[in-house]
Design a protein that fits this description.
By secondary structure, the chain is α+β, with helices and mostly antiparallel strands. It has five helices and three strands. Strand 1 and strand 2 form a beta hairpin.
């Protein structure tokens, strides 16, 4: 099984991003994943999923869980510890798609 750190090295860079906003079906911002320490890995994964799938669909969420690698099992064992992984699990469980809006650095 690949490790999260190895997966991150294969993803597109995120230096051009301030954040990614995740939007519900009505266009409301549910959460913002910022480009800051502690969330940059999640930002890279969600950015890759958005570029690949066009939105965070249940299919995209499954791919995201693969990319988070060892952290996915930790999230399943400790709900709430990894909110960005918990969100992917919820999208799959509830068959929900979130739209994304990139916030670019100036």
């Amino acid at each position: 099984m690949t490790q999260f750190a190895d997966n991150l090295k294969k993803l597109p860079g995120i230096s051009h991003l301030v954040a990614i906003n995740l939007l519900d079906a009505e266009g409301r911002v549910l959460v913002s994943i910022e480009n800051k320490a502690g969330s940059q890995g999640s930002l890279a994964v969600y950015n890759h999923l958005a570029q690949t799938f066009g939105a965070i669909t249940p299919e995209a969420a499954r791919k995201g869980l693969e990319l988070f690698a060892e952290h996915t099992e930790d999230a399943r064992a400790h709900p709430g510890k990894h909110p960005n992984i918990d969100r992917l699990l919820e999208l799959i469980e509830n068959n929900v798609t979130l739209r994304i809006k990139h916030k670019f650095a100036i």
